[in-house]
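subagent[fold] <- orchestrator: predict structure for attached chain, return tokens only, no commentary.
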Amino acid sequence: MKLLLLSGGSGKRLWPLSNDSRSKQFLKVLKNKENEYESMVQRVWAQLKSLHLSDDTYIATGKTQVDMIQNQLGTEVKMIVEPERRDTFPAIALACAFLNSVEKVNSDEIVAVVPVDPNMQEGIFYYVKKLERMLKETGANIALVGVVPAYPSEKSAYIIPAPFDKNKICARVSRFTKEPTQEEAQIFINQGALWNCGVFAFRMRYILSLLKKKGFSNKYENLLEQYSNLPKNSFDYEVVEKESKITVLKYSGEGKDFDDASGCKPLVANN
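subagent[fold] -> orchestrator:
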């Protein structure tokens, strides 16, 4: 399995702390076990290294973030650089073409995608490992990790699964919804809804085939030339929400994405 970390956004909702030149995932606002401040990208990378996953991990990013990533993680980190910022569908499509064409990774390889900027417990990466088995056992085209909600959030995206079998931790996905009212969110939670934390996996050939169906090349050099013509949409919108063969794995640990400054205030270092 190959892991793809997405590091393209600027996180402007944390302005003025984060902006185009200083993205939220690089702000050193989290304390590590040594009581030292570290960034979100440093924390996620440390978690991957502790689980021996970093050697199979690539970071999909934009040109403006290359220096910052190398400064915080080292120059040996493997990156796939977008020629221009578009959205997560183009970034993931380009990464798959790179892995297959340049790195010569077999198209049957499982690719797991993780946003680089969540503050999630290390345990979620154990669940990422389980996604490979889920894809093989269920025959699904996409497998998601869904977080058991801690409260009825109005800002979160929700995965509405079919009823879970008591003997299983995964279920077929029924539908998706996002940013409900607090009352609607509570109803969804009562029905077993999960937070969509942006962690999912698929077989590489699934995306390579999808590119061909959409009229694009799945060869890296050719796709680079076509990049500005790729749909400027999220992977969720362009792929996930249109796929019927999709399953979700329930994760009961913490998950919090700091899209909102209120979630970051207790962690910001005093200057």
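orchestrator: received. Logging for downstream: Helices lie at 40-50, 66-73, 88-101, 123-138, 182-190, 204-213, 220-226, 235-238. The chain has eight helices and eleven strands.
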